[in-house]
Amino acid sequence: SKVPAITLNNGVAMPQLGFGVWQVPDDEAFTAVGHALDAGYRSIDTAAVYGNEEGTGKALAASGVPRDELFVTTKLWNSDHGYDATLRAFDQSLTRLGLEYVDLYLIHWPLPSRDEYVATYRALEKIHQEGRARAIGVSNFQIHHLKRLLDETSVVPAVDQIELHPQLQQAEARAFHAGHRIATEAWSPLGQGRGLLEDATVARVAAKHGRTPAQVVLRWHLQLGNVVIPKSVTPSRIRENIDVFDFELDDADLAEFARLDAGRRLGPDPDTFD
Ligand code: NAD
């Protein structure tokens, strides 16, 4: 594949760029994931709550791509926190995907008000031990949630998937992740296509390289070491978003991007979202 892999803290290889399917209805996910696999994507990011694990799984099966060349991520939804509920929810996700294992299973949100993410994570550890998730991790965990897992559980999360884009650069989280060999995965890497792709700095860097705004934003992530999972249902954009491995941003470009950080969240605050 044209996409380089990063090595997770348990030795598993994960493509640094994958395809996200949030807000894609099940039947459209079948088509979109098919386009993505044709374009060379091998990593797919879904979740129980997206309602498209079935369409995603059917597209994976229909593609004929060998299972061991795919990297499939899904996530445990909020209503299923707790040890037993997590084990049940995982079984249901596997059934909907039509798979015998996933490559990465994530707790979607920490839900601090419920305070069950430690027990929930212990269920992920069991799933991992059984070989039904090659790697386990979390999503939307803040540093203090991660610290608690590190203190109270035994498998260091392989990944923390967080909102991250040039307007929310997450420097502290990234440094903490790096210090614990947790891979940083960026959700909404394109800022959901709202505003960021029209930003003047992004446009200037894009013009300089003869690339699109989406391409230079993805390049910024890759050069920072982030895993990215851009979403699109438009075949030309799906191809455009993976065509980012034959050019590089220089130090001046990266300095311009650094100035775009505005601490601006598009999604909920993980400390209060439940
Ligand atoms: P994104 O940042 O990937 O932006 C997607 C939008 O950008 C598209 O809908 C389209 O409008 C636009 N776009 C895409 N490619 C483009 C291009 N080449 N040119 C112009 N516009 C383009 O947004 P996202 O879907 O929110 O995030 C990506 C993935 O991250 C999701 O699909 C999902 O898998 C994951 N995610 C996870 C969480 C979480 O809580 N863990 C939350 C949100 C998203």
Automatic annotation (TrEMBL):
This is Putative oxidoreductase. SUPFAM superfamilies: NAD(P)-linked oxidoreductase. Substrate binds at residue 108. GO terms for molecular function: oxidoreductase activity, acting on the CH-OH group of donors, NAD or NADP as acceptor. The keyword Ribosomal protein does not apply. The keyword Disulfide bond does not apply. Keywords: NADP, Oxidoreductase. Coiled coil: none annotated. Signal peptide: none annotated. The active site is at residue 50. Belongs to the aldo/keto reductase family. Residues 17-260 form the NADP-dependent oxidoreductase domain. The record marks 75 as: Lowers pKa of active site Tyr. It comes from the Bacteria. InterPro entries: AKR, Aldo/ket_reductase_CS, NAD(P)_OxRdtase_dom_sf, NADP_OxRdtase_dom. PROSITE patterns: ALDOKETO_REDUCTASE_2, ALDOKETO_REDUCTASE_3.
